[in-house]
Design brief:
ten-stranded antiparallel sheet, Phage tail family protein, Siphovirus-type_tail_N, mainly beta, Jelly Rolls, 2 helices, 2 domains, seven-stranded antiparallel sheet, Dit_BPSPP_N, single chain, 19 strands, Elongation Factor Tu (Ef-tu), domain 3
């Protein structure tokens, strides 16, 4: 039986929802513009290197002796949650970041059955459920990106003084570091454990982990680097 987990609640175990059929899981569309110029063959292509959100529709039905109460419970669960993790039972090692966007129409087909469609608006990617931290203690060590697209890691650098960090040719210079600095590629910010802003100590571009091998190198006094990879798939 197909089910899904949303905001930590199981659709079947907690609400008795039966998923009528396996939902279609579309891939995200890359945001590309085509510009036609008079007198020029073909079009100019402007690639923003970003992706659009996707929509997943889940066809459901419930069977219950007290449909009205059950429907109220389901609505409260789905609409009060906001954006949360969405996990399907047939792919339970990956998750979407999703939010319910439709007004749900419960159509009663027989006395004890009701059918409805839940529409989830999702961020463009699937993310790994097991997002384990990698610890690197030697310059030149590599991490393998198991996803299908570049990831946005959160990198914690433990060290002192001036450090040059190089990942796949991307250089980041860290100045006057005291014990630790966190480089968060998701929000493109740098800070310490107290969330004190340390952007003034960082010079360089955000670090991404590309599919395949990613080499970490550095110069300076570094005791270790911890990487929360945030693997993702289209």
């Amino acid at each position: 039986m197909i089910s899904f987990t949303f905001a930590g609640k199981d659709s079947y175990k907690d609400y008795g929802i039966i998923v009528s059929k396996r939902p279609n899981l579309p891939s995200s569309k890359r945001r590309v513009s085509y510009i036609d110029i008079p007198g020029r063959d073909s079009s100019l292509i402007y690639d923003e290197r970003t992706y659009e959100n996707i929509t997943i529709g889940v066809e459901c039905k419930i069977k219950d002796g007290n449909l009205l109460d059950r429907i109220d419970e389901i609505k409260a669960w789905l609409f009060s949650t906001g954006e949360s993790d969405l996990i399907f039972s047939f792919q339970n090692d990956k998750k979407y970041r999703a939010q319910v966007v439709n007004s749900i129409d419960f159509s009663q087909i027989v006395k004890i059955f009701s059918e409805f469609i839940i529409v989830f608006n999702c961020r463009p990617f699937k993310y790994s459920i097991q997002n384990n931290i990698f610890t690197i203690t030697e310059s030149g060590s590599s991490i393998i990106n198991i996803g299908s697209i570049k990831s946005e890691p959160i990198i914690s650098v433990y060290g002192e003084g001036n450090i040059e960090l190089i990942v796949n040719g991307t250089k980041v210079n860290l100045t006057n570091i005291k014990d630790k600095i966190i480089l968060n590629s998701v929000i493109q910010d740098s800070y310490n454990d107290e969330r004190e802003n340390l952007n003034n100590k960082v010079k360089g571009e955000s670090i991404y982990l590309m599919p395949g091998s990613n080499k970490f190198e550095w110069t300076g006094n570094v005791s270790k680097i911890e990487v929360l990879p945030n693997w993702r798939w289209l």
